[in-house]
UniProtKB/TrEMBL annotation:
GO biological process entries: proteolysis
Family statement: Belongs to the peptidase S1 family.
InterPro entries reported in the protein's UniProt record: Pept_S1A_streptogrisin (IPR001316), Peptidase_S1_PA (IPR009003), Peptidase_S1_PA_chymotrypsin (IPR043504)
Source species of the chain: Lentzea fradiae
Record bears the keyword Disulfide bond: yes
Keywords for the protein's UniProt record, in alphabetical order: Disulfide bond, Hydrolase, Protease, Serine protease
Gene Ontology molecular function: serine-type endopeptidase activity
Protein name, entry field: Trypsin-like peptidase domain-containing protein
Amino acid sequence: MSYLDDAVRAAIRPVKRGVEDELLARPGVIGVDIGEKVTGGLPTGRAAIVVYVRAKGPGHPWQIPPEVRGVPTDVVAETIVLHRAMVTRPAETVAAERHQVLRGGIGIGPARSFRVVPPEVPKAGEYVIAGTLGAFAVTRDEHRKVLGLTTFHVGCADDSWSVGDGFVHPSRVDGGVPGADEVAVLDRAALAGSVCAAGLWTGSRPVRAEVVDIGAVTGDAEARIGSTVRKRGRTTRLTYGVVASVDATIRLDFGGGIGVRTVRDQVRVHSADRFGDHGDSGAVLVDADNRVVGLYVAGSGRTGFANPVRPLLRQLDVELLTAGAPWSRRTGRGA
């Protein structure tokens, strides 16, 4: 896969931003991005505005123009879904991990169950949810609370969420028990702009600023196109990918009374194999220097989408907890 020059992307970006809402309003369109135009299965070397659609073929109703303001378009059939796991009862889909000291990359889920009906699920009933606890952050206020980071659709799940909702590790999907396995409570959340995230207050629970199978978190950084990233999720464990774009705008169905929302400027990752799956939402993307660059939200097979980390930290009003930052729970501040 080749990657477009930064100057080329910078020139196309305002055009893409100017037309993406109009394109997203067309039937079947689920995303707009910047990428290399592919014709007949072969890359052309030309930069394009990429339009993701649910299906592609002659007679499709959206009629994407061949170019916009002199920039060619490329219509790509794609399925992009939120990657939380949701089941009617606990199932042995994954060997449950139990960590006395919380780390990034482990399974977590709400202690409460959710009433879900079709078409969001095949059969109406009470469902439980699993996602991933990605990394840890510290609030910027005087309380300096340690929060575990995950996605909005894992932390809030539906429109009945409230601050103080309990979370268990392992998740109820993996046999966690409300009360006995509670490790955190919902402290804050955001679903706007490029951010789909939640912060879970871990209270007195011991935490370690590292990600299982990856190591100590050293900081945060912007995702760089062409760079290799890793993520460790509850379901697929450790996977690798390459950053292909930082310009993806996608429409996601959050269900549960929240409905379809648009998230912008997402990090798009391609992998030679499956990058993520249901239950991996909330995992952090980490670069070669163990810096967090994104929060995994959704995907489709070998393609994954993630919030850029720095807007997420700003919107939640937190700073990333790193292995090099001394911390004292007795004082609540850096030691």
